Amino acid sequence: MLLDHERVAIHTGPRSRLPVIVAVHSTALGPAAGGLRLWHYPDWRDGLTDALRLSAAMTSKFAVAGLPSGGGKAVVALPEGVTLDTGRRREVLRDVADVIDSLGGMYATGPDVGTGPADMALIGETTPHVFCRPAQLGGSGDSSPHTARGTLAALRAVSRRLYGTASLNGRSLAVIGLGRVGAGLARLLTAEGAALTVTDIDPDKRRIGEELGAVWRAPDEILAADVDIVVPSALGSVLTGQNVAELRCRAVVGPANNQLATPEVADLLHHRGIIWVPDYVASAGGVINAISTELHHAGADAADARVRAIEETVNDLLETAHRLGRTPAQAADELATRRLGAASGLRRGA
Ligand SMILES: NC(=O)c1ccc[n+]([C@@H]2O[C@H](COP(=O)([O-])OP(=O)(O)OC[C@H]3O[C@@H](n4cnc5c(N)ncnc54)[C@H](O)[C@@H]3O)[C@@H](O)[C@H]2O)c1
């Protein structure tokens, strides 16, 4: 298999002695950006595989969102069983910051699984190529409210396709996972007049459901709920070849990453007449806001407009998919490929 990435930096951190991997998939549209994942892997090469896959997904995410950024990802591959105390964590983050800084702006990092705004603050002491630092340090902080708004925009587009109106008033939705994004999104949906069914593996989250007047279902029952739209907002491969047959909804649209157990599940959903908006499109609001404000220096209103533009992006994808008989996933991939091809062509011609 050919390497499809512009640059992959692999270092043993001089302080932490841990593998630090930065994968820059593409800078065709602009300098690369993507989160830092601090996660356990059986072997550091599994972390490399993750970095290669996730950085390529970031390229598609930015291309479809119409942002002048390329795809990158950083991974620190923690051996199984290793936990980081505060001192060791600082060493790891300093090691990551050095690698990012050595790339001279080719890649900027933000938070991902295992990292947050406070970690970005520490990285920001070494390199300016970082985003989502806490607001008091001039960063855009927690991205989840913007991710929730972006998902709402995607849901509005799906509603328009299904029911001829973007309004979610009176629609029934099942929100799976009431974490930072899911809870915020559930509040937005309630304010829009939607009727919610919700779940979480954390029983404490029942309180949020009660506060919103939502119906609570067990996590293993909610996917088959009799609702208009299912909104995956937790973790993991929630849609599989088996459970797609049980769905009773007309669409699945949510912020959770990696919703499909395998790519073919998108075709199964399509054959059942269920609209599935690729997660990398529906979940882009957080990174769109962070990158727009911190790396492209857009004002809050301009950044907000870019997040809301997810509605138009999804409208177009659904329209194209319908017209050409494609799945929305194929339409999104083709749009990304077209935009990247056009940018690469411009570069060659320059
Ligand atoms: N935070 C962001 O800005 C952002 C941006 C893009 C994508 N995402 C994705 O959105 C999803 C949610 O992110 P988050 O930041 O809200 O995470 P979070 O950890 O705050 O929330 C996840 C919630 O899901 C619950 N959960 C886990 N497994 C579950 C299951 N099987 N059934 C029901 N509930 C379950 C957890 O208890 C938790 O409440 C993740 O997949 C994340 O990768 C988040």
Automatic annotation (TrEMBL):
UniProt entry tagged with the keyword Oxidoreductase: yes
Domain Glutamate/phenylalanine/leucine/valine/L-tryptophan dehydrogenase C-terminal as annotated: residue spans: 141-348
InterPro entries: Aminoacid_DH-like_N_sf, D-isomer_DH_CS1, Glu/Leu/Phe/Val/Trp_DH, Glu/Leu/Phe/Val/Trp_DH_C, Glu/Leu/Phe/Val/Trp_DH_dimer, Glu/Phe/Leu/Val/Trp_DH_bac/arc, NAD(P)-bd_dom_sf
Keywords from the UniProt entry: Branched-chain amino acid catabolism, NAD, Oxidoreductase
Transmembrane segments: none
Protein name: Valine dehydrogenase
Subcellular location as annotated: Cytoplasm
